Every structure is written in structure tokens, then in C-alpha cells.
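Hello,

Our lab assistant flagged a job as stuck in the queue for most of the afternoon. It eventually completed. Since we weren't sure the result was trustworthy after the delay, we are filing this so someone can double-check. Below is the sequence as submitted and the structure that was eventually returned. Let us know if re-running is recommended.
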Amino acid sequence: MGLRIIPLRAGTVRGVPGSSVTFLRNQGETFDLAMMMFVVVGGEHPVMVDTGTPPVEDVREHHGYHRFARTEEEEPLRVLAEAGIDPLDVETVIFTHLHWDHCSNTELFPNARFVVQQEELRFAIDPLPIFRKAYQRTRTVDPSWLPQLRRFETVKGTQQILPGISVVPLPGHTPGSQGILVETDAGRYLLAGDCVDRYENWNGDDLFAHLASASFTNLHDYMDSFALIESLGCEVIPSHDPRVLEIGSFG
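-- returned structure --
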């Protein structure tokens, strides 16, 4: 069996302003954002891509997302079990980036190494003040992954992580954002992280081929990352689009 990507729901933020999801576009509209983890199966062991959000009460206390909700069915351990994934079997976790909603629950994977771009880890440890909340580097909270720091492995640029699974740098949303390129029997897929929040970002509109979100550290890098994705010959999987969950499996 070849590699296959399964998206796993870990909650929802409802009613996000459209201009936050698509920079300077869709003003007056709102979007729902699915909080997701992904698992790549079919290899020697299951590989997690991002590990979801902290509990609802933590999100509301530290991030102010009062429209964030997660049902009992969406609790990470339950979601993993229903997908047939034993966290103890996960030997590799790859982070698209280290914002709070992508890298919580690391304690669930005691046998895993955690792969991240070197530039992302550096920035996450000492971000610019305006980005501290996104990285949970404030006076009231530490990054949830900090106890696992000794198991972090950093990479620089494009690199194969496992057979059929590579990372490619996609800076812009954050300095060290990366995409995870997965070769499947059905074709090549890219887990694009928050370079592509929803299909609206990738599909663009009548003026622009692709639309950045309003959350970025460098818009020039963001546009270059879109151009890189175009060169990869892949199908793009957004990180927060509920339609990804409706598709259910890729590969």
C-alpha cells in the first residue's frame, strides 16, 4: 500500500473575518476555520503533520478565540483512535510551523522526533513582540512543545525526511514555515500549512492567482512561496479548510 494522507479534525473557529483569511479580500464575509492534524499512513510508521490545538479553555484564556469549539469527538486522543493511530507508534512528527494551533499535544507522542525548519525554531524561541502570542511566548504561557525540545530535529531548506515524504521551505506566513510533500500512488500532494489556509487562498480571484492571508511576517517571501508551490506539480491541501475533512483522504 502506498502513502495516504488523512486529515483529522481538532476543533473549529467560526466566523473568522474574510479579510483575515484572504488579505484585503472578502471584506464583510466570514469563514469557518477547521483546526486540523494530519497523519500520513502507509509507510514504516504513521507520520503526524502538525499536532493540533490545546484544550478549549487554554485557547480562550491565552488567545482570546472565544468562537473556538471542540467537541468530545474531536479530542486528539479520540480522533487518533478512531483513525486507527496509536500515538506510541508515531516515530516522526513534522511541523509546518510553530504557531500554537499547529504544535500542541506533543506529549501524546513520547516516541517521536519533531522535525521543524531551523529558522522557525529560532524565531519561535525569540519572536518579535507582535508575534509572541501566536508562539505562546508571553509572560503567562510557554510554548506547549518546550518540554519536548530535546527531541526536536531541525532542517534547513528542502530535505527528504522519509521515503516519499519531503519538506520544502514556504516562508512568509512565518519565517520558517514549510510544506510537506507526499508522494502517493494517486499523485503528489502538498500539506501547505498556513501558506494556504483555505482553497480560496490557493485559487485566488479575478485579479490574483493566489491570495495571502493577513497573517504574515514577510509578504515578499509569501509570494515567492506561492511561486515555488506552482513549480512542484502537486495538489495543494490547505491547513484550515473544512472541505479537506469532507474529502477525508488523499492518495
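-- support follow-up --
The delay was a queue issue, not a problem with the job. The result is valid. The domain at 4-247 is CATH 3.60.15.10 (Metallo-beta-lactamase; Chain A). The chain has one domain: 4-247.
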